[in-house]
Specification:
Elements (H helix, E strand, L loop, with lengths): L2 E5 L2 E4 L4 E8 L6 E8 L6 E6 L6 E2 L8 E6 L4 E6 L8 E9 L14 E2 L3 E6 L1
Parallel strand pairs: 2-11
Antiparallel strand pairs: 1-3, 3-8, 4-5, 4-9, 5-6, 7-8, 9-10, 9-11
């Protein structure tokens, strides 16, 4: 049974930092690209970051580029999202997702991912 378990969310002031983690089990982690998405109330799920199975390729939307960094440790079956210079508009539930052998051109597409975590709340106060 595949499980993705996020942790590290919480309440932070604007300008602060958080580091999210997502521990995967039940799958061959190195075969999967890993992504982070977020969803605020009343909005659609939004792509935040993704990383290839090897860690060589990453992708970010303009809204977080330069502030967020995704990384992975295949030995620990874990993907991370370092979030700096947080803004109130970053407030959302953050989800990690695993996509089997996704290529960089499809990282942004939530429909391409096979497995999802339960999400972790990130709240940024102004």
């Amino acid at each position: 049974q595949v499980q993705l378990v996020e942790s590290g969310g919480g309440l932070v002031q604007a300008g602060g930092s958080l580091r999210l983690s997502c521990a995967a089990s039940g799958l061959t982690f190195s075969n999967y690209a890993m992504g982070w998405f977020r969803q605020a109330p009343g909005t659609e799920r939004e792509f935040v970051a993704a990383i290839s199975w090897s860690g060589d390729n990453t992708n970010y939307p303009d809204s977080v580029k330069g502030r967020f960094t995704i990384s992975r440790d295949n030995a620990k079956n874990t993907v991370y999202l370092q979030m700096n210079s947080l803004k109130p508009e970053d407030t959302a539930v953050y989800y990690c997702a695993a996509g089997f052998r996704l290529n960089i051109g499809t990282f942004y597409d939530s429909r391409r991912y096979n497995y999802w975590g339960q999400g972790t709340q990130v709240t940024v106060s102004s």
